[in-house]
């Protein structure tokens, strides 16, 4: 796949004061409606404070106190307060500084470099893994429903494949599914470990994949700073993946992180799309007129909420 892998510099922006404002080039940053002194504080925060390696020393500090201390209150109120609420759906006082720092360090540093994209799509990577696993004698079972996991000296997974009940035995089971789902399947587990896994709270995610007959925005990544919008971020996927749409057209992802008990999660796909279209039209005039097709994706357990008292469970 080496000859299909390409690197590309992308642009990012923010939805601020009702429109998309660029924040990639020096000219865009200088023209952003923020006092110059605060821009310098923000630059120092991104270039230095987010580069530290010993995050453990900040473990008792919450995200708000740390950002205000290092970047100033205005930068916190304009940028980080809403970004934290969008991403974690929690108050900045309830999110740990190390978790915020490590996440923002990765995202901010990535825009100082080029992004990579794979011609033909990332599914080729999965296909390559599959071929290698099968070549080495591994077995891949698809479209099977897991019934029960037996946690004894010999591990067993009971599942249904093609309408037939089957048993798979092994010495070790590695699970990558959300703990809440895993706990429904496994027959027994140490009480303290079960308690830790049950305590992990998750955010859900709704993502609208939208095909447009035009290119409504040239920024790849646009975070939302304005309050009251139903989504957290949107991406012009085609500004990075050049083969994802025909010339003059584009594919845009509109994404919301939320809790599964919220109103938007309970809406039908059509209702969600109508909510998204109404708000996108306010930001990018005529957005909905360019829509040629769309599809809604939902992930119930999209991301763990890293609260102040969060502790990684033992592996």
Describe this structure in words.
There is one protein chain. This protein is 33% helix and 25% strand. By secondary structure, the protein is of the alpha+beta class. It folds into three domains: 25-110, protoporphyrinogen ix oxidase, domain 3, CATH 1.10.3110; 141-198, no CATH class; 201-304, Alpha-Beta Complex (Polyamine Oxidase, Chain A, domain 2), CATH 3.90.660. Strands 3-2-9-10-11-8-12 form a seven-stranded mixed sheet. A hairpin with a 2-residue loop joins β2 and β3. α3 (63-71) packs antiparallel against α4 (73-88). The longest helix has 16 residues, at 73-88. The model has no long low-confidence stretch (mean pLDDT 90).
Count of discrete structural domains: 3
Given the helix and strand composition, which structural class is it?
alpha+beta
CA-atom Rg in angstroms: 22 Å
Unreliably modeled segments: none
SSE ordering? EEEHHHHHEHEEEHHEEEEHHE
* DSSP summary: helix tally: 10
> Helical percent range?
25-40%
- The fold-level CATH name of the largest domain is Polyamine Oxidase, Chain A, domain 2
